[in-house]
Amino acid sequence: MSEENARKRFNIFKKKQATPDEGSDTFDESSFSFELKSNNLNTCIIEANATMKKGKNIGMPLPLKCTWYRATDEKEFVTIEGITGAFYQPNADDIGCKICVHAVPVSEVQEYTGMPAFSEVGPIQIDPEIQSQVQDFLAKNYATFVLSLNQADKGPGSFKSVHLVIENGTLSATNAENEQVFNFNLSLDEIKIIINYKSHSSFAICGKNFKYDFNANRSYERDLVTICIRMFTSKAQSTGSTEILLKNQQLSQRLFEANKNYEQCLITIKGLEEEAEIKLNELHYYQSHYHELEKDFRELKESQQKIIQQNENYGSEMVFLRKDLMLYKEQCALLEKKVNDLLLEEEKSKILLSNLHEELTSLIKSMSCSTCKIDERLYMIIDTITGEKSSRHHSSKASSYFSQQEETQEASEKDKFEDIDYYKNQLKQLKDEFSEILNKCEAEKNFYKRKAESLATENDKLLSKLGKNPKDISEFAAEKTAFEEQKLKLIKEVEESKKRINELENMIKINKRKLDDEIERSFELRKIIQNKGSNSNADYQRIVNSLTQTLTDRDEELRQQKKLNKDFMNRIAQLEALLSVITEKS
Questions:
Q1: CA–CA distance, 121 with 6 (Å, rounded to integer)
Q2: Which domain of life is it from (predicted)?
Q3: For a tag on the chain, would you pick the N or C end, based on fewer CB atoms within 10 A?
Q4: Coil, strand or helix: which one is 41?
């Protein structure tokens, strides 16, 4: 019931407040605290409790005079007659209703001048144990109870034990002697259950021309019998009641399963959303890393172009250097040939001089004493040729004797010595030129060797920058392979997520179709029950209404979930677009 109705009921019970002239020690609503205790089950007693919160009796409980009401959907209030105490035991009539209390403190010492206390609890619900037993009885289509029947003809307080049996749409009672007390057809006879609120265990089964008063052992048993008779009556009076109850049970089971599947779908979709968020973050990371690699690749490509240009320049320089090297090699070969010829000439000259020296020596030895002057002259020639100084002393006589012959021989010898000196100078000059050429060739060889080494080092550096170094190429290939594996793994996971979402969406569609069918059936059942509202029971109507409302709520939740699934599919589409871009670029 709404707050507005609660305030309306509160204003009904409200009295005129005390005026300020009545003093500060008046006994009014501010003097005590009031509460209503209950667990909202029909088997639990409702307790109204008031406690003093000021004055000398603070903390002491107050006696209350209460008026109890039942708030139903049909009327604002129904007074519960005969109950004026602070305790109230709910019964089967209170299920689905709120219980309200109008309480006024009772004091013999001081008159209460304040407004009445008002509170409410509920709506009262059926005890789960009673509900479970009723469902078992309905499933078996059979129920039996042992009750005490009041014998009014034998005087007040006279009871006898009877067996109350509900079976095959009939309500019957037999006594201990197995005699039938009554037998009613629940689908034809109009039967009404009246509960005695002043007692915790008595009730009556009434009709147009009869009334039977019963006592149960306790209130729990009375409520169980009352609810069973009402449910079996509704079942018997409804056309196709067995099928309807079975369908309701199936509907409840399907609703439970659909709710369970729905919660499982929510958990799964939440997990998939978290996974998709993680994959999206990874995708952003890989995308940024890919942009960095793409930038490095452009830089490497520019460096490659520069290196190719430099290699072309170095190639043209190497062509000229090779030509120069071939020319120097040819010159060196010619110089070596020339030197070898000069060395051969030198050897020949040495051999010739050696032979001449030997012949002169043999000539000197073979000469006699009469020719000593000639020998001395020959010695002078030999000394001049060999470059040695002789210690021999020649006579002036011999010198004069041979003076004319010496002049002739000296002229010829002088020519020979000039030729020898000339060849010696030529040989020395050739040796110097050969040494100079060898030194120059060695310098050129070292220069080109250093040049080749520097070119090889620079080429290795350029290859490293270009990524053609084997070590760098292997590292780059490994990194590229890892990136490709991550990309394929991400694509696979996105495909699996998409497949799982499609499965969940199909499952939700199937559950929605099932729920739509059940809702349609529930509405049909509701129409049948409304058409036979005169014979239907209000409790059974409330159960059907609650099931219909629950189905409507589930249908709304499914619509919201469908919207969430649509948003999630849009995010998956965005991920696929990003993956396609990465695939095209790579």
A1: 11
A2: Eukaryota
A3: C
A4: strand
Which whole number is the average pLDDT over 481-492? 73
Query: From CA 19, how far away is CA 15, in angstroms rounded?
Result: 12
CA-closest candidate to residue 227, choices 539, 543, 533: 539
Helix (H) or strand (E) holding 145: strand 142-150
In the CATH hierarchy, which top-level class contains the domain 129-237?
Answer: mainly beta
Local structure of 327: helix, strand or coil:
helix
Q: Which of 528, 516, 469 is nearest to 258 (CA)?
A: 516
Structure token digits, residue 378? 């020959």
Question: Domain 3-125 has what CATH class?
Answer: mainly beta
Q: Is the dihedral of CA 453, 457, 459, 460 positive or negative?
A: positive
Which pLDDT score is estimated for 397?
42
Q: At what angle do helices 403-466 and 241-366 cross, to 10 degrees?
A: 180
Chain centroid to Cα 194, Å, comes to 62
- Token code pair at residue 144: 């039996």
| 20: three-class secondary structure by DSSP | helix
Cα 206 from chain centroid? Answer: 67
Instruction: Dig out the tokens for 83 from the structure.
Output: 């109950």
**Cβ(33)–Cβ(47) under 8 Å?**
no
pLDDT at residue number 412: 63
Which secondary-structure segment (H or E) carries 311?
Answer: helix 241-366
Token pair recorded at residue 363? 């000539």
Q: List for the chain the helix, strand, coil content (%; round to 5).
A: 65, 15, 20
Q: Which of 80-84, 331-335, 446-450, 536-540 has the lowest mean pLDDT?
A: 536-540
Which two three-digit tokens encode residue 415?
Answer: 């020519």
Q: How many CB atoms lie within 10 A of CB 301?
A: 12
Q: What tokens were used for 109?
A: 């010492």
Burial class (CB in 10 A: 0-12, 13-18, 19+), 119: middle
349 contacts 458 by C-beta, under 8 angstroms: no
Rounded to 5 degrees, φ, ψ at 294 are -65, -40
Please work out, in degrees rounded to the nearest 5, the angle formed at the alpha carbon of residue 224 by the alpha carbons of 221 and 227.
150
**Sequence letter at residue 111:** E
DSSP output for 489-556: HHHHHHHHHHHHHHHHHHHHHHHHHHHHHHHHHHHHHHHHHHHTTTTS-HHHHHHHHHHHHHHHHHHH
Cβ atoms of 568 and 273 within 8 Å: the answer is: yes
Average pLDDT over all residues of the chain:
73
Q: Token pair 């529930």 is at which residue?
A: 522
Instruction: Name 394's Cβ contacts closer than 8 Å, sequence gap at least 6.
Output: 373, 376, 377, 380
* 14 has a pLDDT exceeding 50: no
Lowest mean pLDDT among 50-64, 264-278, 517-531, 568-582: 517-531
Determine contact, residues 210/182, Cβ cutoff 8 Å.
Answer: yes
The residues, any chain, with a CB within 8 Å of residue 421's CB and separated by 6 or more, are none
More confident residue, 394 or 221: 221
In what side-by-side order are the strands of the sheet with 180-185?
180-185, 170-175, 159-167, 142-150, 211-215, 202-206, 192-195
Gyration radius (Cα) of the chain, Å: 66
> SS3 for 86?
coil
